[in-house]
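Audit log entry. Action: structure prediction of a protein-small molecule complex. Ligand: NAP. The ligand was supplied as SMILES and no pocket hint was given, so placement is left entirely to the predictor. Protonation state taken as written. Sequence taken verbatim from the request; no trimming, no tag removal. Recorded inputs:
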Amino acid sequence: MQIRLDGRRALITGGSKGLGLAMAKAFAGAGGHVALVARGEEALAAARAEVQAAAPGARVAAISADIRTAEGCARAFGEAEAALGPLDILVNNAGTSQRGPFLDISDAAWQEDLDLKLFAAIRLCRLALPGMRERRWGRVINVLNIGAKAPLAASTPTSVSRAAGMALTKALANEFAPHNVLVNALLVGIIESDQWVRRHASDLRGLSWEAWKEEQGRSVPLGRIGRPEEFAALALLLASEQGGYVTGTAINVDGGRSPVV
Ligand SMILES: NC(=O)c1ccc[n+]([C@@H]2O[C@H](COP(=O)([O-])OP(=O)(O)OC[C@H]3O[C@@H](n4cnc5c(N)ncnc54)[C@H](OP(=O)(O)O)[C@@H]3O)[C@@H](O)[C@H]2O)c1
């Protein structure tokens, strides 16, 4: 069986790097069209070229917007539909890993985390769902982390934003299932991405990238960290016609690392 997205149009936040870029390549390679949204223009231009080279037949839009604001979300959505046409697939993926001892986290840090990881998804869903409902076909994929189900000590604000993302996923899945709009979440453990490249660069122990990755992988039952292509393959299935009977679920993509199913 081949998983195809022929002609489907997707907006992917955080599409310029890491998991977002891997999903963009997978979606475009399966016949879809993609709009990549992020802030940094240089990375966006490079990502657009990379996706286009991998899938010459795809329409690929690169949109610079900060989705922490309502205005940024509205502009990203408007420009994506202007470039590609009505959107069938929304992937709420942009995010950072903000965490620390609870007593050290200010209101401003909480607000920033919720703006990026929760309100951006709420606002983009509000923009995308009416058209999906009208056309009776839609997919929303919320990229979260395994802390959504099993928060560790000193994991706020991120685990709280992610748990809210899981509740949003379930509520929207129930509300929009009658309209053939499917809403799911993918919960990431440790998957190679630009975020991990940055963490390696800030680790002062002088480990090589390979040795560093191997060390991270020791906490994972499968014994290694994930590859972005492995993550993108599951996202592609959820976005496709073949994924048509899966909604309202939150799947761990973590090599077995989460303590809960
Ligand atoms: N990789 C993992 O192991 C892992 C683990 C747990 C959860 N996750 C989650 O998975 C998602 C993807 O992670 P990743 O590892 O691929 O991260 P990444 O490599 O750091 O990429 C993050 C992407 O989000 C964009 N972004 C960040 N802030 C933004 C904003 N305010 N507005 C618009 N775009 C913004 C970034 O571009 P700009 O900075 O240029 O805007 C970039 O394209 C994130 O939500 C992350 O928290 C990943």
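Audit: result stored. Helices lie at 18-29, 41-54, 70-84, 107-135, 158-176, 194-202, 209-217, 228-239. The first helix runs from residue 18 to 29.
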